Amino acid sequence: MEERLQKIIARAGVASRRKAEALILAGEVRVNGRVVAELGSKADPARDQIRVSGRLIVADAPRSYLLLHKPAGYVTTTHDPEGRPTVLDLIHGMKERVYPVGRLDWDTSGLLLLTNDGELTHRLTHPSSQVPRTYQAKVEGIPDPAALQKLARGVPLEGKPTLPAKVRLLRKGPRHAWIEITLTEGRHRQVRRMAEAVGHPVLKLHRVALGPLALGSLLPGRFRFLHEKEIKRLWAMGRPAKRQPARRSARS
Ligand code: URA
Questions:
Q1: Which in 70, 97, 224, 243 has the greatest CB count within 10 A?
Q2: CATH value at residue 49
Q3: Distance 147 CA to ligand 1 centre (A)
Q4: Which of 99, 164, 180 is nearest to 130 (CA)?
Q5: Is the beta carbon of 139 within 6 A of some atom in ligand 1?
Q6: For 125-147, what is each residue's pLDDT tens digit?
């Protein structure tokens, strides 16, 4: 059955759907030896030979889903130009290469999902999916109810308010407090910037949940495979993202 190329590539675990689109536009994809650089192009994974950057892809390759307890001090990209350790340095004994789903800052710890399922990655990271992400943050000072309410209602970042969030005070010390915040969007350094905006900069940040996944008692630096039930729940959460109409290349 014919399907859009970017979908086939994502499912083969080579790249996320967005990255697959970029590879197509860059002329890195060949179908039966011919470069296909148009986004609307289709192929039949059972019949056609599809190569990405010269590598033959195996449609419907085995998929792996891992939950890692990321320690602070690791980057979430697969390569760091500054040579810092990456989360992939913590993944051992895997035949398939897996990729982080979304990002955590270098100094953020906690739950990170990794997979080679490009289609699920696309769904979970698309802005329309609104998958809840729960963080626990140690903040400077003790936020009063007004500050907590501001965080919950939305804080303007680059002129656009953040979506409503669930916020609660977990505990307080003499000069700092721990708060828990659940967001349904993933803007750049969102928790840190929100907390700063209400006058309580983040000292430590830790993610404890992503959609149906909970970090639980997994030790820092360790990972586990997801259970079948968790994978099904994740698929149910990541709503099919509305696709942009296919952009045409100059040649068509
Ligand atoms: N918000 C942040 O500020 N940093 C993260 O790593 C995740 C969410």
A1: 70
A2: 3.10.290.10
A3: 19
A4: 164
A5: no
A6: 888 889 999 999 999 999 999 99
